[in-house]
Amino acid sequence: MAVTRLKRKDRYNKNVSRLEVKTLKLATNLELGSRSKQSKTDQLAKNNAILTQLSAAL
Fold first, then answer.
1. Residue 46 contacts residue 53 (beta carbons within 8 Å)
2. What's the CA gap between 26 and 7, in Å, rounded?
3. Highest taxon of the source (predicted)?
4. What is the pLDDT of residues 10-42, one digit of tens each?
5. CA-based radius of gyration for the chain
6. Rounded to 5 degrees, what are φ and ψ at 13?
7. Which of 1, 2, 6, 31 would be 10's cystine partner, CB 3.0–4.6 Å?
8. CB under 8 Å to 14, separation ≥6 — which residues?
9. Apex CA 39: angle with CA 47 and CA 21, to 5°?
10. Could you give the C-alpha distances from 44 to 10, 13, 37, in angstroms and in order?
11. What is the DSSP letter of 16?
């Protein structure tokens, strides 16, 4: 069976869908009781702390 070359649109869609799957796998959904507890020192926690301070100051 011969290997056919994908058209440009199909190559683009293949690459985009592969990247979407990659980002979905990397996106972690943190929930209470989850095995992936959010660290207190990660950047997201620091950003949330700063945002709560700023919103409290307003």
1. no
2. 29
3. Bacteria
4. 888 888 898 888 887 777 665 555 566 677 788
5. 21
6. -65, -40
7. 6
8. 6
9. 85
10. 36, 32, 13
11. H
Q: Which two tokens stand for residue 35?
A: 């095995």
Residue 8 tokens read as 């440009």
Confirm whether pTM is higher than 0.85. no
- Whether the Cβ atoms of residue 45 and residue 39 lie closer than 8 Å to each other: yes
The single-letter code of the amino acid at 2 is A
Torsion, Cα of 45, 34, 36, 30 (10° steps): -40
Amino acid identity of residue 16, one-letter, is V
**Measured distance CA(15)–CA(28) in Å, rounded:** 22
